[in-house]
Amino acid sequence: MNRRKFLAGVIGGTAVAVPLPFLNCFLNGNGTALAATKSPLPPVFGSWIQNLGLNPGRWKPATTGTGYEAGVELKVLDRFKDKTNIISGMKYFLDGRPQETHTSGLQIATMGGLPAGGSGSPSFDTAIADVIGKRTRFRSLEVSLLGNRASWSMRDGGTVNPAEPSPAALYRRMFGLDFKDPNAAEFSPDTRELARRSVLSAITDERKSLVQYVGSEDRARIDQYFTSLRQIEQQLDLSLERPAPVQACRMPKQVEEFPTGAETELVAKNDQMFAELISHAIACDQTRVFNVNFLGSGLFRKGQSREWHNLTHEEPVDPKLGYQPDVTWFIDFAMKRFADFITRLQEYPEGSGSVLDRTLMLWQTDHGYARTHSLEDVPVITVGTGGGRFKTGMHIAAAGDPATRIGLTVQQAMGVPISSWGKLSNQTSRPFTELMA
Question: What is the pLDDT at residue 254?
């Protein structure tokens, strides 16, 4: 038995396969390296891209270096303070090009500059995936929290890696794609069937055989792992149930198999589901690169009248508070989703620590201040050390520096062999050496 072992089974003619996490029997005595090769557990890179920035004066720490106090809008990350870096003052440079609001900043952040002509440069997450993700089942996984397929992960020539908006569909990709029907052009197993009958039920015999060959700690870890998978299935199953009828409600012509969308309740629920599934994918070495997209700023809403993007332009600044209160509600909601996602990575046990211990996660946004579409003083956040490749716990002020400095730093930390990155004024050969371990 080795770390790439799958437990296989069949549900109604559909092949399913459940990978195993890094068990103690695969690791050294400290739970920090692979026993067979003595090499450390592989690093993981994740990105979180969120539209509409933060409020000036409410996020930036007053002091630099360690021991900083985050502004109120980043207080939700205080529980990860020793694992977090905040970088302030950076800028997106247009080099005389017209600004495409909500787009130009993220083009620079992910591709290093504005595209020339109709095709863009590859995003730097794909360069990282080409280094650390070559041998994984999924080169990268992209998910969307707003029910669309918007993504900033891009291969050379402008080929976008579309985001998956449905946790149910991601579940199928992870556990139901080994089967291919030779008589069908396309095949997708029914999520309801997978959830109700359970992929775990299909691997009962192999699971019983497995526990005979591992120690007590690994048996406990396997039980915890499968319990977590069962909880995912139960959540999917509940979400597929038809709700109680409401007299004023009219059924649409077509009902999606799993609710996705930009309403706050769905966003919060799907955030938890995606965090759980991606934690499993990392722990089972199915992917080492993932991208979470909080994109679609014209979609995200609370109820029928409060929509984040429009509010950034239309809501007046409260003279007493000094900021837009409804916009700030959305900012706080979004940052809570980011914190919840990180929390699940932190809580997922692995070796002597957690999945977060070998993850480096980068939070980026399109504007410094959405109300004015500013490209200055853009907030950037990193969480995690990437398995010891990053130093953490710092606030770095990089006034006026190109935001591509962080992209260069992250790529070098993940082993991408480059000495500079970016275009024109966004080009830089200055990584944040103080963050490099």
Answer: 30
Of 83, 108, 115, 76, nearest to 93 by C-alpha is 108
Sign of CA dihedral 194, 198, 200, 203: negative
Other beta carbons within 10 Å of 50? 24
- Can you tell me the distance from the alpha carbon of 321 to that of 318, in angstroms, rounded to the nearest whole number? 5
* Residues in a beta bridge with 390: 436
Strands (E), 66-119: 84-90
Any idea what the Cα angle at residue 270 is, between residues 227 and 126, rounded to 5°? 95
- Taking CA atoms, 59 is separated from 37, 72, 73, 357, 397, in Å, by 44, 6, 5, 25, 13
Token pair recorded at residue 61: 């720490």
- H or E element that contains 290: strand 289-294
Residue (of 82, 63, 83, 86) closest to 73 by Cα position: 86
Domain ranges of the chain: 1-40+172-243, 42-165+260-435
* Cα separation, 313 vs 297, whole angstroms: 12
Using pLDDT thresholds of 50, 70 and 90, give the confidence band for residue 58.
very high
CATH topology of domain 42-165+260-435: Alkaline Phosphatase, subunit A (3.40.720)
Structure tokens at 158: 């402008």
**263 bridge partner residues:** 301
**Which two structure tokens, joined as six digits, stand for 133?**
């993700």
Range with top average pLDDT, 182-186, 298-302, 319-323 = 319-323
Q: Is the pTM of this model over 0.85?
A: no
CA distance linking residue 407 with residue 211, whole number of Å: 43
Q: Where are the beta strands (DSSP E) in 91-217?
A: 141-144, 154-155, 159-160
State how far the Cα of 111 lies from the Cα of 268, in Å rounded to an integer.
29
Helix (H) or strand (E) segment spanning residue 282: helix 264-283
pLDDT: is 257 or 408 the higher one?
Answer: 408
Distant-in-sequence, close-in-space partners of 141: CB < 8 Å, separation ≥ 6: 164, 170, 278, 281, 287, 289, 290, 291
Q: Does pLDDT of 258 surpass 90?
A: no
- The pLDDT score that the predictor gives to residue 250 is 30
Site of tokens 């990105």: 47
Residues 6+ apart with CB under 8 A from 154: 110, 111, 120, 121, 122, 123, 126, 160, 161
- 242: DSSP letter: P
